[in-house]
Amino acid sequence: MSDKALANDLFALLQSPIDMAAIVREVRADQDGAIVTFDGFVRNESHGRPTLYLDYQAYEHMALSKMREIGMLAREKFAIHRIAIVHRLGRLQIGETSVFIAISAPHRNAAFDACRFAIDTLKRTVPIWKKEYFDDGAVWADGELPPAPPSTPKAAS
Amino acid sequence: MLFFGRMRDLTGVTEEALELPTGATLADAFARYAARFPQLDAFRSSLVASRNEEFASWDTPLTEDDTIAFLPPVSGG
């Protein structure tokens, strides 16, 4: 699955606000009939505690390569045209977009399915972390442990 | 050797070089840090190791100039 990403695919980590309209324009083409987007933004509470703001940190080079991998997998699984996955890093205030995904396709079902696949996979496999700040302190958010390959010789049952 | 998220906070280390004997694995590298920062031991089961930007099992042998990290559960999105 080497070179399936097209020129118009877009994978990026940004320190500045995400321009959602520009990304949607980027994936839109005359041969498409649908674009599905996912806008993930900062909620004002976490487990019932009011949140002040979030800090996002990434293993940037690996995160970008995992995002590209999601793009390639999505292209293999679904009949989509273009895919954009953009994640913001640094400090984000309530209501600001942290992740934006836009996927175009000739038909809507593929775009819906691929978008769901992309955000779900991102949340499990892309090395990005968020720290939640509250009135009385800060915690790293509960996350998901990415699946590691099985051990080599013995414990591979 | 790279540290992120809670691991960076616990160790105060962002990035450093690590010398290990030939044949050492990711588990050996972790043990080295757990000896230096005993509070890391409690987190071992909730970490996944990476070698050269790929998730890797703890028994993966290391070679010179590998870039490794012990990654906490990811929480992007």
Can you tell me about this structure?
- The complex is a heterodimer of chains A (157) and B (77).
- Chain A has 157 residues and is an alpha+beta fold.
- Chain A is 28% helix and 34% strand.
- A four-stranded mixed β-sheet of chain A has the order 1-6-8-2, sandwiched between helices. A four-stranded antiparallel β-sheet of chain A has the order 7-5-9-10.
- The two termini of chain A are 27 Å apart.
- The model of chain A has no long low-confidence stretch (mean pLDDT 93).
- With 77 residues, chain B is of the alpha+beta class.
- Chain B has one domain: Ubiquitin-like (UB roll), CATH 3.10.20.
- Chain B has two helices and three strands, in the order ααβββ.
- Chain B has a three-stranded antiparallel β-sheet, with no helix packed on it.
- In chain B, a hairpin with a 2-residue loop joins β1 and β2.
- Chain B is globular and about 35 Å long.
- The termini of chain B are far apart.
- Chains A and B meet through β5, α2, α3 and β9 of A and α1 and β1 of B.
In short:
By secondary structure, chain A is α+β, with helices and mostly antiparallel strands. Chain A has helices spanning 20-27, 60-77, 108-125; strands at residues 10-14, 34-41, 45-46, 49-50, 53-58, 82-88, 90-93, 97-105, 128-134, 137-140.
Label this structure with key terms.
heterodimer; A: 157 residues; alpha+beta; Aldehyde Oxidoreductase, domain 3; four-stranded mixed β-sheet; 10 strands; 28% helix; B: 77 residues; Ubiquitin-like (UB roll); three-stranded antiparallel β-sheet; 3 strands; globular
